[in-house]
Each structure stands twice: as C-alpha cells, then as structure tokens.
Write a structure and sequence with these properties.
Layout: H1 2-26, H2 72-85, H3 87-90, H4 114-117, H5 121-130, H6 137-141, H7 144-160
C-alpha cells in the first residue's frame, strides 16, 4: 500500500515538473510587449453620449446663505450626516471631545461657541471643509449635497436639541 502511494506521488511530481518545464520554455516571453513612454501616451476618448461632470464642487462664497430652512426634517438629516462625518472628532455634543478628537493636539473646535454660530453660512461651510485641522480632503469626502445640512445642524444645534441629547 505504501509502495503504491509513493509511486503515485512520484508520478504527480514528475507531471508537475514536466508542465513547469513546458511553460518555462514555451510560455509567453513578453517579446512583443507594448512600450509607451509618458510623452507618447494618448488619452482615451470618453464614451459616446457621456456627460461631463465637475470633479469636485467649488466651495461656496464666504457670504453665501444657506438655502435650507431650519425644519425638523432638515435638522435630522444634518444630525445623520454629522454623526457620519464629524462626530468622531467633534463629539456628540459638538464640544470637541469625540473619541478620535481627544488624541489631537490642538483638540477639535467646540462647535457650540458663538463665534461659530455667528459666522456666515458660506464661511462656516468653507471652514468645515478646509479649516484648521481639516485637510482639503474633506471637500472630496463629504458629498456636496450634505454640506448645507451640516451647516444647518451646527448652527442650530443648541436650539433644536431633543431631550434625548
């Protein structure tokens, strides 16, 4: 029984080595590979009927006003987006004591202060996306359609807090 097993294993090893040798000597040798230099590269054309889109939306003007009304629905959407994008640094209470923010020096801003509440909406959105501690990556991470909900939530947090907060 052992002898049959060793013979079978030997045959398998011989077949694997034969296949490897075959591929080594007859396989692709990349003799006809395409070689493009950077200056030779041509850009691909977009597909037919494609619609161009702006890569990243531009930041609002600093004096631009929020077009969203402070309704319970809009405030709740702002809360959802805040909890998704901001709560880890700024905390549930907007006090800058989020679990990740505690490790930062300086610590994240307390978003409840009057200097933030009194900022123009456009300036607040700009600061939320590119301000101190925020690399410009937030402009690409947070979708444009959520910017104004976040602004509304931060500016009206102290007035719209539910009893469970």
């Amino acid at each position: 029984m052992k002898k049959k097993y060793i013979i079978g294993l030997g045959i398998v090893v011989i077949l694997v080595l034969a296949a490897a040798a075959y591929l080594l000597f007859t396989g692709p040798h990349m003799e006809q590979q395409e070689n493009l230099r950077t200056f030779e590269k041509s850009e691909m054309l977009p597909p037919p009927n494609s619609v161009p889109v702006e890569k990243f939306p531009t930041l609002p003007a600093v004096n631009e006003s929020n077009r969203l009304k402070n309704t319970p629905e809009n405030f709740e959407r702002g809360r959802v987006y805040y909890n998704y994008y901001c709560v880890f640094c700024h905390g549930v209470g907007l006090d800058g004591n989020g679990p990740v923010g505690k490790s930062y020096v300086p610590k994240p801003a307390d978003l409840r202060v009057d200097t933030i509440k009194n900022q123009a909406d456009g300036r607040l959105v700009n600061n939320m996306l590119t301000g101190v501690g925020h690399t410009p990556v937030l402009q690409r991470v947070i979708p444009y359609k959520y910017w104004w909900y976040l602004c509304l939530y931060v500016k009206n947090f102290q007035y719209n807090k539910s009893p469970s907060d």
